[in-house]
Each structure stands twice: as structure tokens, then as C-alpha cells.
Write a structure and sequence with these properties.
Structural class: alpha+beta
CATH superfamily of one domain: Jelly Rolls
GO molecular function: DNA-binding transcription factor activity; sequence-specific DNA binding
Largest sheet: 7 strands, antiparallel
Number of helices: 12
Keywords: DNA-binding, Transcription, Transcription regulation
CATH architecture of one domain: Sandwich
InterPro entries: AraC-bd_2, AraC_XylS_family_regulators, Homeodomain-like_sf, HTH_AraC, Tscrpt_reg_AraC-type_HTH
Shape: globular
Distance between the termini: 18 Å
Number of strands: 12
Strand order of the largest sheet: 1-3-4-11-6-9-12
Oligomer: single chain
Helix content: 40-55%
Radius of gyration: 22 Å
Organism: Propionicimonas paludicola
Order of helices and strands: EHEEEEHEEEEEEHEHHHHHHHHH
Protein name: AraC family transcriptional regulator
Length: 311
């Protein structure tokens, strides 16, 4: 999707109102800059927002003329923000998320340049009572403490990368919505909700990403961590034309390739970060995958200081 860039607060207001719901924007910056990149269709989508300092307001008169009932979940990537709704204020820092609803007035304040990833979905799709949703707005949620929310965030943000976890945008949004709904439920530990294979794949992929340096991680470990059978793990990956072991191996070697190109870490350290306690074993696996030894690959692909890798 194209990245939409603006150079004034009034242009930013028009872009934000068209992407989400009508809002008003104020900024004291003389040289305001902002950009949005969006995936989705209709009322469901995810948008990466980068902007300078400012304030976003959805007021009663705007709600009266545009009474959309959407749930917005904002993940703070960089900078900080403050969300005010329903008499509550929440300060949101990097690595936290926050819910707010378009059916009620709210104010978002950004005291510094910031980047957020915002998922929007019709409130009814979360399957939660109105009073439950109202009780959750403007309450920052630390994503690091919640594996499900980390999975949701990875699914959404990966849509803006060359290798999305789920390449079908509609499926990715469905999975993210199901995960958010479960994470927000007061009785989530007792719900026993049955997850589909797309959601399980997203969970497995997140676990693999977080434990690439763990040589003990295997199919049994994936099954145990998510409370499913080993057969289910194999079936989930088979639907994507691979096996759990092959996916784990490819992910580790891809990390090795990235570290070789972007760092000066010794090969022994890179091997450990890729789940191998033996650099010679890592070297053999790397050569089978890429046709070059790690040293040869590094000589051909080392990124110079100040430049940025394309991967």
C-alpha cells in the first residue's frame, strides 16, 4: 500500500478523518510532518502512523454527524502518547497498547514525535458487552507481559514487512481481532476458546521468533507451550507447505544471514543467537541453505556503517 505523507496539520486532519473517523487535530509545529500506511478494507484495517507532536480530538458534534462504532487498539512503537476517554487518562509508552472507542469522545495527545500501529475493527466484532468495552478504554496494556497480545502485534506489524506472518490481509485482521477479543475478556483463562489453524500458526511463529536462540525449542516444545498435540502442530505447518522443523531451521538461518550482514559479531556468537551451540554445525547448515559459508556471505553483504539493510 502507498505511504500517504502530509506537511500541514490541516492535511493531517483530513487524512486521519478519511482513514479512521472524523477528528480534529491541533499542532503548534510550524513544520508538521506525518505519514500513514494502511492495510485493510472498509471498517477493518491496520495503519502505521508516524507524526510530530500534536493533539487529536473526537468531539460530541463529530460523533453526532458520523456515529461510527469502531474499536481502535493502538500499539505504541516509538515516542509516548496520552489517551483520554470516559473520564480516564492513560499514558502509553513504547511496548504498550491502549483501547479507545469512536462512539464516545476521546482525545489523543502526542507530546513528541511518535509512531503507532492502530488496528480498527467494528466494536461488535470483538464480541464483548458494551459495558465491558467501556471499562477497558484508556487503560494501557503492557504487551511484553501478554503472549497473545505480542502475537497480535507481530501479525499486524508484519503486514508492513517483506515477510508477513499471514500474507492474506483479511485473514491477518481476523486473527488479530480474535486474539484481541480473547485478551480483553475478563474470564479469558476460563473461556477455553478453540483457536483455528491460522491463529495457531501465528502463535507458533511468534514463539519461534522469540526463541530463535533456544536450542531446546522443538515441535514438542511448541505443542506444550500452546497446549495442543504434536500432530496439530504438524498439521498447522503442513497447511502452509512446510514442517515445524523446516520453518524453525529457516527462521534461524535467516536471522544468521541478517546478523552477518548488519553486525560485526563473531561467528560463534551469531551461532548461539541462532540456536546452535556449535559454530561448525551452524556453518554447515548455513552453506547448505545459502550456498556460501557465513564468512563468504558476510564479505559479499556486509552493510557499511550509516547505511540500512534492505532485509
Amino acid at each position: 500500500m502507498p505511504i500517504h505523507t502530509v506537511a500541514t496539520a490541516s492535511e493531517w486532519e483530513s487524512l486521519a478523518s478519511a482513514t479512521f473517523v472524523p477528528v480534529r487535530i491541533e499542532s503548534t509545529l510550524h513544520a508538521f510532518r506525518g505519514s500513514m500506511e494502511h492495510h485493510g478494507d472498509g471498517e477493518s484495517g491496520v495503519t502505521v502512523v508516524r507524526s510530530g507532536s500534536g493533539r487529536v480530538s473526537r468531539t460530541a458534534d463529530l460523533i453526532e454527524t458520523s456515529p461510527a462504532d469502531l474499536a481502535l487498539f493502538s500499539v505504541q512503537v516509538r515516542g509516548t502518547s496520552r489517551v483520554e476517554q470516559d473520564g480516564r487518562q492513560g499514558r502509553v509508552g513504547p511496548g504498550s497498547g491502549v483501547l479507545y472507542l469512536t462512539r464516545a469522545a476521546y482525545q489523543l495527545s502526542f507530546p513528541e514525535p511518535a509512531e503507532v500501529a492502530i488496528m480498527q475493527v467494528p466494536s461488535e466484532r470483538l464480541g464483548l458487552r458494551r459495558d465491558v468495552l467501556d471499562s477497558l478504554v484508556a487503560r494501557p496494556l503492557p504487551l511484553r507481559r501478554d503472549p497473545a497480545l505480542r502475537t497480535m502485534t507481530r501479525v499486524l506489524r508484519s503486514l508492513f514487512s517483506p515477510r508477513p506472518v499471514l500474507s492474506d490481509v483479511a485473514q491477518a485482521l481476523d486473527v488479530a481481532t480474535e486474539i484481541l477479543s480473547s485478551a480483553l475478556r475478563p474470564d479469558r483463562r476460563r473461556s477455553g476458546r478453540r483457536r483455528n489453524h491460522a491463529e495457531l500458526y501465528a502463535e507458533f511463529e511468534r514463539i519461534i521468533h522469540e526463541r530463535l536462540d533456544d536450542p531446546r525449542l522443538d515441535v514438542a516444545g511448541l505443542a506444550e507451550q500452546e497446549g495442543v498435540s504434536i500432530r496439530t502442530v504438524h498439521n498447522v505447518f503442513a497447511e502452509r507447505g512446510t514442517t515445524p522443523a523446516a520453518h524453525l531451521r529457516e527462521a534461524r538461518l535467516d536471522r544468521g544471514r541478517h546478523l552477518l550482514a548488519t553486525t560485526r559479531l563473531p561467528l560463534s556468537d551469531i551461532a548461539v543467537l541462532c540456536g546452535s551451540e556449535d559454530a561448525s554445525v551452524f556453518t554447515r547448515s548455513f552453506r547448505r541453505e545459502w550456498g556460501l559459508t557465513p564468512s563468504e556471505y558476510r564479505r559479499q553483504n556486509q552493510v557499511r556503517p550509516g547505511s540500512h539493510p534492505s532485509e
